[in-house]
Amino acid sequence: MDPAELLALDARHVWHPYGPMPGRVAPLLVTGASGVRLRLADGRELIDGMSSWWAAIHGYRHPVLDAALAEQAGRMSHVMFGGLTHEPAIRLATKLAELTPPGLEHVFLCDSGSVSVEVAVKMCLQYWRSLGRGEKRRMLTWRGGYHGDTFHPMSVCDPDGGMHSLWRGVLPEQVFVPEPPAGFGAPLNPSYVDTLAQAIEEHADELACVIVEPVVQGAGGMRFHAPGYLRVLRELTERHDVLLVFDEIATGFGRTGRLFAAEHAEVTPDVLCLGKALTGGYLSMAAALCTPRVADGISRGEVPVLAHGPTFMGNPLTSAVANASIDLLLSQDWRGSVRRIESALRDGLAAAREVPGVADVRVLGAIGVVQLDHEVDMAAATKVATDCGVWLRPFRDLVYAMPPFVCTDAEVRTIAEAMTAVAAAA
Hints:
With 426 residues, this protein is α/β, with parallel strands linked by helices. The chain has helices spanning 3-13, 51-54, 63-73, 87-99, 113-130, 151-155, 190-203, 228-239, 292-299, 316-330, 334-349, 378-387, 409-425, and strands spanning 30-34, 37-40, 45-48, 106-110, 138-142, 175-177, 207-212, 216-217, 223-224, 243-247, 271-274, 286-290, 358-364, 367-372, 390-391, 398-401.
């Protein structure tokens, strides 16, 4: 179809994420993607600085992942997971149990990151109900977080900093503490540790779990915090008999320089959520992993099953690609790639510190952030970035990038130059 006709149909029928209907700004029409580049209908090519919302860590049309997809499609694309099982899902669950922090032995495969948080919350709530402690049904988290767009995950997103405030009075009211002090390498703040301790102690009898994004708070503000706070949470939750959930949907599979962000703190949560890069950005899949304690507790209840079962749970096609993506990652020097990207982002974004209106520049692993002292004009920012040959998706006061791990140094420099140009023009 003619690109103009496609965009007209898009405007008439397609409701894009976080946008009005009809949309006010026409999206860019992508006709193909290869390596780290998106090909547009108008002939331009853009370096994807976003890894397609942080998922496409290997880039696009990777021959290993393409082959895994084709091979599995030749066997079976889907079969229900209730009462049936298959090798790709068994291999994937086993692989995840082996790779994640020790003790996370049981794997629930689901459809998306937000659903994995729903499953994690349900695990925690059902655990306590099974033990006869149904009063433990609230969650504690810190502000500045983001855990997804379905209802229970929205309830533990920052209550004031985003669209989720729209649902105040509808969502369950959770317990919030202030956001963790900024700085991955910063020393622990004793006053903040006391705040965590007091809040967990005060609410322990009603808390099902504490849920946080370890080390990096993603869409809630792209903030980094010291791993030591995770050790504090682990000690406090164990002391007060509260479950601990880590949401690693954005940070899992090497993004912060460790395979999982929890490894920076050397702690194991009771439940771990994974998604995004799980399939290398090819297909939607997520997972919620838990310890035997959680699984055994649920199994002892009046309803001795986890009350959840998505139609496409453990989809063979998606499982096969996830296996191939993880194997591909582990077969390469991914740590060296992430360190190289981190270094290139630090060097490339140094100039952004001198741009008027820039409040902060921070880099951790393959994550680069330029924070402004004002909100970004999305349409203007998109034009500046695409003029530089880069696809970025700023939000609020943040211009950030999470490049694919296969980016060259030159491509990372181009991404950093585009981020700096957007900041200068904002």
